[in-house]
Amino acid sequence: MSSIRRLTVLLLASGLMLTPGLGTTASAAQSGHEKNVIKLVNAERTERDRVALKSQRCLQRYADSWARSMARKQSLQHRSSSSLRRVMSTCELRGIGENIAYGYGSSRAVVNAWMDSPGHRANILRSSYRRTGVGAYRDADGRLYHAQLFGTPR
Q1: What are phi and psi of 28, to 5 degrees?
Q2: Could you say which DSSP state residue 144 is in?
Q3: Is 68 helix (H, G, I), strand (E, B) or coil?
Q4: Model's pTM, two decimal places?
């Protein structure tokens, strides 16, 4: 299956439409909250005999950027397929997935919500994924927006 077709299948399976740290800074450094999301996602993965994901700086920058953008616009929206292809190319990946959420006040709450959603759960547990990046930002009303990217290295 071609990488574009695989991307489309992943997007559709995750409920994505084909149509970017906790806080307000542009830093790509992970906050404790973002690290905890990865820790909890990895607990879900290892509990099911999947390899733990490693943080990738490139994916982290894109996740931070998207979470910040959604929070500023107060709009929950998946990246377009062309944007995800750019992330794949820039981060040297052959596969990519994305989970987004808003309104969950803790890392445990957002991971639980993703695990309760078949498409988001599939991204978390996809065995081909080995890399990740997580962004979390608050909007003007204090609501948290999350973006998690998953990647399969080349």
Answers
A1: -90, 5
A2: E
A3: helix
A4: 0.82
| Span 80-135, pLDDT tens digits | 999 999 999 999 999 999 999 999 989 999 999 999 999 999 999 999 999 999 99
Sheet holding 93-102, edge to edge: 54-55, 131-138, 144-153, 93-102
Report the residue count for the chain: 154
CA 87, 88, 89, 92: dihedral to nearest 10 degrees?
120
Q: Are 134 and 21 in contact (CB under 8 A)?
A: no
* Distance from C-alpha of 136 to C-alpha of 65, rounded to nearest angstrom: 9
Type of residue numbered 139:
D
Say whether 120 sits in a helix, a strand or coil.
helix
Q: Give 14's DSSP letter.
A: T
Rounded to the nearest 5°, which phi and psi values hold at 25?
-95, 165
Residues 148, 64: contact at Cβ < 8 Å? no
Q: Does residue 45 contact residue 53 with C-beta atoms inside 8 Å?
A: yes
